[in-house]
Every structure is written in C-alpha cells, then in structure tokens.
Design a protein that fits this description.
This protein has 412 residues and is mostly helical. The chain is 53% helix and 3% strand. The strands form two sheets. Strands 1-4 form a two-stranded antiparallel ribbon. A hairpin with a 2-residue loop joins β2 (253-255) and β3. The relative contact order is 0.13.
C-alpha cells in the first residue's frame, strides 16, 4: 500500500511546466543527433513525451502539450534499421504512441503503419536468433537485451497486442534462449563473448554473463514473468524462469548491508566461484538492486515462490536503509540515479505485503527533489528531468502510472 505525496507531485508539476514546449525545453538549441534524436526514448522528444502523456492520462496535464511532444518525436525520418529497438526508431515511437492511445483509437492509423514495421523487424531478428542457436553460437547482448534487443521489442508486443502471433513467437524464443547450447562448458546459454559495452575486450577475452535489467538476462526474467502474470500460455516459460533464477541464485551475494547481485559475471569469477565484495553495484536500475530485485520479485510472483518474492523485497529494503548505498546514487535519472530506485521501490511496494518499503518512499522522494535542486537539469527521459519527474509523479499521486510508461524499464 502506498500513499500520495503532495511535495513530490508539486515537484513533478514544476518540471513538467518547464518542459511544456519542445522548442524551449532545452536551454540551447534543441539537439537533433545521436542520443537526442527525436525518436529516441533515452534522450529525445519521444522520451520527454511520456511525461506529458502520463500527466494527460492522469488528469494533471493536457493533451495539447502531449501532442506537441509527439509531433516533435515524429519530426524526423523514422528508422527501422539494425540500430532500432525499444529505445530508438520505429519501436520507440510506436511504444510512445501506444502509451498515448491507451484503450482509445487515438493515433490508430499511425500505429497500424508502425506495427507493420515493428512486426517485420521482430521476425527478421527472431530468424537470425534461431539460426544462431541452431549453430550453437553464443548471442550478442543486442540480440536479447532490453534497450536494443528482442526483450525490448517484446515489451512493445506484450503491451500492444499480446494475442498477436508475434508476441507468442518472441516469448517462445526467450524460453529457447535459456535452454543449454550444444557446447561443452559450464556457462549459461545467454553468456556473451563481449564486454558489457557489447564490444570485444582484451580485459574480458572470454566474455561475460550479464545480470542486469538493461542489458542482461534480468530483462528476459522480467518479461517472461510479466507475461505469465498476465496469464499468457507460454510452453516452457516456468522452466525458463526457474533456469534463470537458479543461475542468479548461484551468484547472489550476502553482506552486512544486505544481499546483492553482481552486475555481471566474468569467466574468472566462474572459475574461482566467487565475487569480490567491492564489486557490489550501486543500487541503480540498470545494473543494481533497483532492477535486479524487481525482476526477482516478479519471478517469485509468477512462480508462486513467496520465499523468492520476500527475499527480493528484503534486498531492496536493505538498500533503501543503507546510507552508503544511497550516497552512491549521485545522479537523478531513471537509469543510473535516484529516480530509478524510486520508481522500482514504488512498484515493489505496491506488489508487496510488507509496508516497510512504502514507508521509505517519502524520504527517497525528498532526496530526489533535493538532488534536482542542486543539478542543472537535462530534459531527457533516461538520465534527466523528464524521468525524474515521472518517478515523482508516481510517488506524488500514490497510484500506478495511468499510461503504464514504466513498462519501458520492465518494472511493470
């Protein structure tokens, strides 16, 4: 059970007002390339639009502002190339438009065209992934991760049309991803030959196993669990969830400040069977307990494993009560910062029978507001003001996001 927080809502309102106009939201000229490409969820107009869409759906904003940002997001040629995914290009714009449409027929024509592109893209990538598995080759992170890969495309399909054949095909692939490859080693089948940045590295010549929600197996765990919680019949899904949990359980660590999971596992750690305590990640969404504990909680809920669910909630609670861990979050954003911890904690509190998590939310909101007061704010969603305002809006209203915007983080 969570309650409303007027101070958090007022702070969110102030940010939204400052970001009302796409032409003046940036202090200098609106950036147009790279991360700030209009059709980027992370740093472009498509991401900032989610703030105004959520406010319009919840009665705290107007659709005119939301539409202005959607128009800005669609102002450039749309990409469905190899770099497109949930966070960029056709899938990103489709996600944002679907979030705006809700159960209405708003933007239906545009969504129909985008659906064709995203379904075609998904089928192409699924075919390549199945061929890779049949050849017993290890995956690249971008094959299955949230930001660039099939887990991210799965977020869109699960929300947009869960009964469409493509949703079932994608979820079946995720099950297959967890099945052993025909190779003789003790590494999981999602082990990649690259470093966490997706590139080969002399420091990690034998690659790594990524635990995180942004780039690792945590995304697969969360998406399969959410699909099961929504009642979708996926052959082998429970077994796939259990296989992932067995591996993450193997690497769960225990310290004075509570349990934790490494952000990733190296071949040397597999060989030695241990992870140094100094490698505990900050409690962020991307690699830390904000994301990992939520994925574990969802898995526990999906499997009816209350012990796993409670263990995940206790891990998060320990982080919320540990000043040293909180001090590691020096940024405000959803990815690396306090906003990500706040949104994850709110979602976990809402699904928990333990009132202690909810009791920590007002203090965490106040901490985020204080950080924002000391920071020159970038408007962007993933690391900037729009994302922080969305987390504060959730805490402020005390209600689950009306738009479901945090699905792009796989928190719901």
């Amino acid at each position: 059970m969570t309650s409303s927080d007027p101070g958090a809502l007022a702070a969110a309102d102030a940010v939204a007002e400052a970001l009302a106009d796409p032409n003046t939201a940036w202090a200098a000229q609106r950036p147009a390339g790279g991360r700030a490409w209009p059709q980027s969820l992370a740093g472009g107009a498509a991401g900032v639009a989610l703030l105004h869409i959520e406010r319009a759906h919840s009665g705290h904003g107007d659709w005119g502002t939301a539409h202005a940002w959607l128009s800005a997001a669609a102002s450039d040629d749309l990409t469905a190339a190899a770099n497109a995914g949930l966070y960029l290009g056709a899938p990103a714009l489709a996600f944002t438009l679907h979030t705006a449409a809700g159960p209405s027929r708003r933007y239906n024509r545009a969504l129909g065209s985008l659906d064709q592109a995203v379904v075609a893209m998904t089928r192409t990538r699924l075919a390549a992934a199945h061929l890779r598995i049949e050849q017993s080759r290890r995956p690249a992170m971008k094959e299955f991760d949230l930001i660039r890969g099939l887990s991210g495309l799965g977020v869109y399909h699960l929300r947009r049309h869960p009964d469409h054949p493509i949703a079932g095909e994608l979820l079946s692939y995720l099950v297959r991803l967890t099945e052993p490859l025909a190779v003789r080693d003790d590494l999981p089948p999602w082990w990649t030959d690259s470093a966490p940045n997706g590139e080969p590295s002399p420091e990690l010549p034998q690659g790594h196993g990524n635990v995180g929600l942004a780039h690792g197996i945590g995304a697969v765990l969360a998406l399969l669990s959410l699909a099961r919680l929504r009642g979708l019949p996926i052959p082998g899904a429970d077994e796939a969830i259990a296989r992932i949990c067995t591996w993450t359980d193997r690497w769960r660590q225990h310290g004075d400040a509570g349990p934790w999971w490494p952000g990733f596992i190296t071949h040397r750690q597999v060989r030695e069977g241990q992870v140094a305590a100094t490698l505990r990640p900050r409690p962020s969404w991307c690699y830390g307990v904000s994301g990992t504990a939520r994925a574990q909680q969802l898995a526990g809920m999906a499997l009816g494993d209350t012990a796993r669910q409670h263990a995940a909630e206790n891990a998060l609670l320990a982080a919320l009560r540990d000043q040293a861990q909180l001090d590691q979050l020096t940024e405000i954003g959803l990815c690396h910062g306090t906003a990500g911890l706040l949104q994850s904690a709110w979602r976990m509190a809402a699904d928990s029978h333990n009132p202690q998590i909810a009791a920590e939310l007002p203090g965490l909101s106040a901490r985020l507001i204080a950080q924002m007061d000391r920071t020159v704010l970038d408007p962007e969603l993933l690391d900037g003001a729009a994302g922080a305002a969305l987390a504060l809006h959730t805490a402020g209203t005390g209600a689950a996001p009306a738009s479901g915007w945090d699905a792009f983080l796989l928190l719901a």
